[in-house]
Design a protein that fits this description.
665 residues; alpha/beta; 7-stranded parallel sheet; 23 helices; 20 strands; 40% helix; binds adenosine-5'-diphosphate; binds magnesium ion
């Protein structure tokens, strides 16, 4: 019917396949039976019994009826009531053995079951079993869904193709798909249910990674081959590259001569020196006669990179392009990029606008990848004739998630910090420490050092009880009368932001009150104090990023978290930051404590909405699936022509199609 179809549609169910893969969210164990005399209040159980007498229905009001009946077995009697189920009357007959399932309560007429499920004992479907509970609680009732699924399974399950090759099923001892679907809806017992769930989770991981692998290999484009790959660039740097940086540089060089377009993600904790690696790659690109582009998520960061790179490559014509670049200037830069006069461009999203064309783009660098959707990254990569692509992220993504999120990228990790870095001492304190913190702040400023103070809001808000940067900066100016206090937030004009940031970098501003606009990338080594207001409002990884703004030079640095909460869970979360400086550990904990959805904002990052598979809990399955995909691609696991065909057609129609497209668009 129309109405039911609409309801199904709301839950993404358009056909039988969707219905069969609409999995329960929980189960009710209805396998225990007792006799009437053994019933106790609070019990949820099945009873086999007969109807004694008839059913009496009272219509209290037009929309309110109560039906009641008495049931009997060899040991005793008990009564049942049903609210608003007048049809129960027509369902029940004498001399039929029924199975009832429900919760036992005490009433003034003795023990009774309220709204029990009743069915004839002969072909029981929803009693004496583990029964599925579906997430569609409104619209279509659980009972109806169970009935429809029963029918769908009986009639259509045998037609469902098995997407996994036999070799994979055997190697990982997986349940066949049909058996798994049958048991995920109507499990015989919990052991079988878990096996079914694992099989389905494995398949989800497998198909997803298979799709990504297909993308990766099919999308593997012939790339520009660089002929000059000497290492003279290092001489331009004021420091020696660390072993960890050199390792990544070597890999990048290999990519440059491989004949394929590089598609590499560099993961490195805050301050690990990703910019130098990117600059190295840019240097090679320029030397080989190609243009290079770098995209950063914020104007502040882009500007900072622009300045750094201008200093590193003084002989190269370099441009800075953002949405606030004047129209005239923009046109000039675009012309320069198209003609090839401009060799290096640094900018924000403005760079991926369609009308920016390059003469011979060789390398695209995206900094702080986690701030961009995958689309944007892909778009810039489409600019030239398959340029090399390098993306950098400081969000230390646990390997498990990296596998899923960046399956189409090769991953390199800068796994150590440059020498001489000191641990940032971190303290989580309450408001009672405020005076002491300000005294400390004054000392640091007197010593010529600088500080950031981060507030969660830009302006005062009635709706949210949290510190706002604007009035906080005002207040601070009276607390620190002889100090230059600057203000920086996202609502300011780009030119203003730029000049504030520049003044801070030049130490003309001592204390910068800011929102999280300084979260990514900003590098002012003289800043040694990071104070975060309402720290309870930030995620752990975000706090770690913010803390990463200090401790970048040789001087001892400090991070003070003001927590305006007594919630033990929140305080426990903040303890993680206090104790650890390991970005990977912190993000693992963040994931554990908040779940991946919160962590990344699922949609933005295109984590597939896996129906039954949770990459954080089913890590072992995820790795097995990865191994299986690699095995099939490399030929270690065999696959017949017929299996290949099925797999391809499933991949073509598979439930991830939407997610994959989402990732690409
Ligand atoms: P991130 O990885 O967070 O982007 P940056 O590239 O901004 O880190 O580098 C952080 C700081 O470390 C910068 O001031 C940079 O000049 C410095 N740096 C990078 N590599 C080294 C190195 N090998 N030795 C010393 N300092 C380095
Ligand atoms: Mg950086």
């Amino acid at each position: 019917g129309e109405k039911r179809a609409q309801e199904f549609k709301k839950h993404g169910i358009l056909n039988i396949y969707d219905l069969l893969t609409y999995y329960p969210t929980s189960y009710q164990d209805r396998r225990s039976y007792v006799s009437a005399e053994a019933l106790v209040p609070g019990m949820e159980t099945c009873v086999n019994c007969w109807l004694k007498g008839g059913v009496r229905t009272y219509r209290k009001r037009r929309n309110f009826s109560i039906s009641s009946a008495v049931f009997v077995d060899e040991t005793g009697t008990f009564s049942c009531v049903w609210y608003n189920q007048p049809y129960i009357d027509r369902m029940l007959r004498p001399n039929v053995l029924y199975t009832l399932y429900g919760k036992v309560e005490k009433s003034n007429r003795g023990l009774q079951m309220v709204n029990p499920v009743v069915e004839s004992n002969e072909n029981s479907r929803v009693t004496g079993k583990i029964v599925p509970v579906y997430p569609m609680n409104k619209g279509i009732g659980n009972k109806t869904l169970q009935k429809m699924l029963h029918e769908a399974i009986q009639r259509y399950l045998p037609l469902m193709p098995e997407p996994l090759p036999v070799s994979v099923m055997e190697k990982y001892k997986l349940m066949p798909l049909q058996e798994a679907i049958q048991n995920i809806h109507f499990p015989v017992d919990y052991l079988v249910l878990e096996k079914a769930r694992q099989r389905i989770a494995f398949e989800a991981f497998f198909l997803f990674q298979m799709s990504v692998a297909k993308l990766k290999y099919m999308g593997r484009k012939k790339g520009i081959v660089y002929t000059k790959i000497d290492g003279a660039f290092e001489k331009r740097l004021p420091f020696c590259l660390t072993e960890a940086q050199q390792k990544v540089v070597r890999t990048v060089k290999e990519d440059f001569v491989s004949g394929f377009a590089m598609n590499r993600l560099i993961q490195g904790d805050v301050g690990s020196g990703k910019t130098a690696v990117a600059a190295y790659a840019m240097d090679l690109t320029l030397k080989n006669g190609y243009q290079a582009a770098m995209m950063a998520p914020t104007e502040i960061l882009a500007l900072q990179h622009y300045k750094t790179l201008q200093n590193l490559f003084p002989e190269v014509q370099t441009a800075f392009l953002t949405s606030s670049t004047s129209k005239k200037e923009k046109q000039k830069i675009k012309n320069g990029l198209a003609s090839g006069d401009v060799r290096l461009v640094i900018g924000t999203h403005a760079l991926i606008q369609e009308d920016v064309a390059f003469q011979n783009l060789g390398l695209v660098v995206t900094d702080e990848q986690h701030r961009f959707g995958v689309t944007q990254r892909t778009k810039l990569g489409l600019k030239g004739k398959s340029p090399h692509v390098l993306v950098m992220t400081a969000t230390p993504i646990p390997r498990t998630l990296a596998l899923i999120l960046y399956g189409d990228l090769d991953i390199s990790v800068i796994d150590s910090l440059p020498p001489g870095r000191q641990k940032v001492d971190t303290f989580c304190v309450g408001d009672n420490y405020r005076t002491r913190v300000y005294t400390f702040l004054k000392e640091r400023i007197a010593a010529g050092e600088q500080a950031y103070i981060i507030c969660p809001l830009v302006e005062e808000s009635d709706a949210v009880d949290a510190k706002d940067a604007t009035s906080f900066a005002e207040k601070l100016r009276s607390v620190l009368p002889n100090t230059v206090v600057g203000l920086l937030h996202g609502k300011m004009k780009d030119k203003e932001k730029e000049s504030v940031m520049q003044d801070f970098a030049d130490a003309k501003i001592s204390v910068l009150v800011a929102t999280t606009v300084v979260e990514v990338g900003v590098d002012v080594p003289n800043a040694t104090v990071m104070i975060i207001e309402n720290a309870e409002r930030f995620g752990l990884s975000q706090l770690h990023q913010l803390r990463g703004r200090v401790g970048r030079g040789k001087k001892k640095s400090y991070c003070i978290l003001f927590a305006q909460t007594r919630n033990p869970e929140t305080l426990q979360r903040l303890k993680v930051i206090e104790k650890s400086t390991d970005g990977f550990y912190i993000s693992e904990m963040d994931l554990k404590l908040r779940g991946p959805g919160d962590f990344f904002g699922t949609r933005q990052h295109g984590i597939p909405a896996l129906k039954t598979a949770n990459p954080m809990e089913d890590t072992a399955l995820l790795y097995q699936a990865k191994e299986a995909v690699d095995g099939l691609i490399s030929g270690v696991l065999c696959v017949s022509q017929q299996e290949k065909k099925t797999l391809n057609s499933v991949l073509h129609h598979c439930f991830f199609k939407k997610e994959i497209t989402e990732i690409l668009n």
